[in-house]
Amino acid sequence: ITTKLPAVGTTIFTVMSTLAAEKNAVNLGQGFPDFHCDPKLLEDVAAAMAAGHNQYPPMPGIPALRDAIAAKIEALYGRSYSAATEITVTAGATQAIITAILAIVRPGDEVIVLEPCYDSYVPNIDLAGGKVVRVPLVPGTFRPDFDKIAAALTPKTRAIIINTPHNPSATVWTEAEMRQLEDLLAPTDVFVISDEVYEHMVFDGARHESVARFPGLAARSFIVSSFGKTYHVTGWKVGFVAAPAPLMAEFRKVHQFNVFTVNTPMQHALAQYMVSPQPYLELPAFYQRKRDLFAAGLAEKTRFKLLRSEGSYFQCVDISAVSDLSEAEFCLWLTREIGVAAIPLSAFYGDGFDQRVVRFCFAKKDETLLAALDRLAKL
Ligand code: PMP
Ligand code: GLN
Question: Transferase among the record's keywords (predicted)?
């Protein structure tokens, strides 16, 4: 058949998780926790089901959850979104992102992505008939290059997708960088899709710079987040989008026909769980400790050069001192021969650009991280 996505195969996450299972490797590849969520959250799901919350919820999500999301955004980022018209519950961030893209990108529109970027963005733009404009983050530091972004803007630019904290590099945009983006877009009609799924994982006292904090960005932005990341339940596939009412109206037109609604009992449980005692406030310290444990072990036991993990649950390392293999070959070799799975950064670039960097996920039990470090010490 004539394929709509000729460049697309199976995602790197599926490939590496399958290989890791086959080889009995410690899986630090695909980003998901190997520990349980709070048992209270499970009780809330069971209670919601037992109470009969098992039929279709309202199309944009149950009001209690939208209220809780709006309250959280206002408390954290100081911007008020209407739960009625500006917030929609989605089937994870993945569905939120493709829905926002389908809602705004018309055939021939240009959409700027900053590479390396999460692997769903480019196929999503392709499916909308948009033209992908790839702008590299600065090699080595993975910071945004505003001269390059400015040079990529044209009258056909419809949107830019940003992601902070960043998957895969683990950088976190600063307030000054957000202001630079705000200033750069001020004279344009460009929309922003702001992927903030790691909003609660920012380390060393830094703060998450949501587009919600910047009026000039918020007015043109779809904010995307994911309960999977925040509450250690990636398999639930529940997330949300916040956007000004006119943007959200377009979003919902697509949402109602690609998923219509998101599972009801999880929404009730999350609404119940979110109001107090705000468990996401503990996440920075929780993950910073894991980052430090893993990074200290890597520094002590391996010759990898560590990149700074400022946020997210990823630690990137430069493999140059350890191997001459390409990143992609190295990750396959590491899984098969050493028994630890990682993700090559080349998977986040259109042309497979090899920066000699691979990504480990440290959202794992300490014993899992220590087992991986024992194996990596053999390198
Ligand atoms: N964006 C980024 C940057 C991610 O890392 C992920 C999770 N892998 C997603 C979106 C998708 O999130 P969800 O699992 O909620 O669909
Ligand atoms: N977001 C996770 C990662 O980057 C998992 C993505 C997926 O499995 N599609 O590893």
Answer: yes
